[in-house]
Amino acid sequence: QVQLVESGGGLVQPGGSLRLSCAASRNIFSMYTMTWYRQAPGKQRELVASITRSGSTNYADSVTGRFTISRDNTKNTLFLQMNSLEAEDTAVYYCHPRLTDYWGQGTQVTVSS
Fold first, then answer.
1. Which of 11, 36, 43, 108 has the lowest CB atom count within 10 Å?
2. What is the rounded end-to-end Cα distance, in angstroms, of the chain?
3. Are 34 and 14 contacting, i.e. CB atoms less than 8 angstroms apart?
């Protein structure tokens, strides 16, 4: 059984920070590159960041320098540290193992004053 449970979202002021977590079942986490996606109201879901099993990372241009993706392979947990948040970062954030059909339920991030 595959489980992906995101947490850590919330309401934050512009310029603030949040750290998202995704607890994944071991059978998925150990096998795949893990990614964070986000979907804002009325927009398509977009890739935010990815991290391979060995720790190589990639970021969307819009978050480079502000967001950091990481993973703890001993705890099967994916993280997204988000700094200098902007209103445009408001979205539901999802973790997703690449090349699978599995998605978590998402966690809402709202950046507003």
1. 43
2. 40
3. no
CB 48 within 8 A of CB 93: yes
- Length of the chain equals 113
CB within 8 A of 79, min separation 6: which ones? 19, 20, 21, 22, 68, 69, 70, 71, 72
Whether 80 contacts 96, CB under 8 Å? no
Q: CA nearest 67: which of 34, 19, 28, 104?
A: 19
Element (H, E) at 26: helix 26-29
One digit per residue, the tens of pLDDT, for the chain of length 113 reads 789 999 999 999 999 999 999 999 888 888 899 999 999 999 999 999 999 999 999 999 999 999 999 999 999 999 999 999 999 999 999 999 999 999 999 999 999 99
- H helix or E strand, kind and range, residue 6: strand 4-7
